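Encode chain A's predicted structure.
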Amino acid sequence: MSQAAKPPENLGQISIATQVVINRATIRRPGAVILLLAASVALMMTGFGIVMPVFARRLGELGGGVQALGLMTVAFAASQFIASPFMGALADRWGRRPLILTALGTFVLVNIAYLFAPSVLVFILIRGAGGAFTAGLFPAAMGVVADIVPEKERARWIGIVMGGYGVGFIFGPALGGFLYDAWGFAAPFIVSAALALAAFLAAAILIPETRPRAVRRRDALRNQREKAIKSKIKEPIWASLPKPFYIFAALLFLDFIGSFAFAFVEPEMIFYFYDDLGWTTAQFGVIVGAYGLAMVLGQTLLGQSSDRFGRKPVIIAGIALSVTLYVGLTFVTFFWLMAAGAMIAGLGSALLSPALSAFYLDITAEAHRSRVVGMKESALALGGVLGPLAVVAISPLTTSQGIFVIAGALTVLGALLAAFLLKEPHHIVLRKESIAWEVSKRRSLAAESALQGIILRARRSQRMQQRQVSG
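Encoded structure for chain A:
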């Protein structure tokens, strides 16, 4: 007669989990993927930088002026404002790679279309269409970083991706000015399209999907479950937004103010350089290039500063340095001194952008990161829409210097807002984790007590049965 199987030694014992493993995309060399992404972005933004100083010249050839440049800026920003949330949601639903390739491919087609634009209106419409279909690049790129990089290293790698954006503003504007002065408006757009095509091919071949279908399906099921629970308890719609909500709102406002201030001065600044100061297209390109050089070097060397010193102080320092651009525009007319001021402002942007982006990711649930970054992009785009409209309304009432002073004052307001409202995200995370741990601990103790009671009752019942058999 076979003996009964010996019960496991841990039968009746309670084990408490000490770690939760979250499935992520398996990327062997995440750093290499992000570097390739940054390189692709750098190629595209170099193309963008090439055509940047040419827009005003080309619009002038077509019979436009400050108003036309302002409307073109509004068209681009408005389309990005409308499309960014949808593109961010699509990056969460369909994956990062399709949105990145769509943006890069669109930029190729847009630059070719510029060559054949017969009027200011068509030029503006092309610019608006390009803004809509490239709006997914930044949310998808930030989603890639969040997918494969630990939280404590995000600001560093975000800085590298943002450095890819800045690279385009080092060589692009000066090269665009030189190409325009030497060969006319067609040359900058042809070179820009070629660089965008190289970026598209590099991304298509070398950049993998960091949010595979299995992860997207898991998150979709989780979202459905959470929606079903929320529908039963009737939670308000803003319950899914990052918490604390006032910090999320403050971050959006900071992005809006920064975008609004620059968009507010941009149309006036370009024609101020060309008409009032008499600078050439190449000189304007050098100013933008100096800004981009400082931004790239700063994000490469200092992009991880908020990981080390905290998000809040780095954000405040970045805003403070950014003010130097508007101070320089107000008081400086010497070319090289203006270039130095642009470099200081670029360093401020190098500190500010990675810290703000990392702050968003710190307080956002994993399944909604691209969507929230899309909302961030919408705040930036809204500033880009309202800024040019505001300068059209205010420019008849003040001088160029008055416009620059207003932009500087708004930027200072942003620094004060950051100083008074922002709290370090790691304190918020720790508080949430402590609350969650306390709740989990209480539940574990309750479950342990309940199971121990069941075990004791089972043992008593077993003893009673043994007594009855022996009796």
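Residues 24 and 215 are 7 Å apart (CA to CA).
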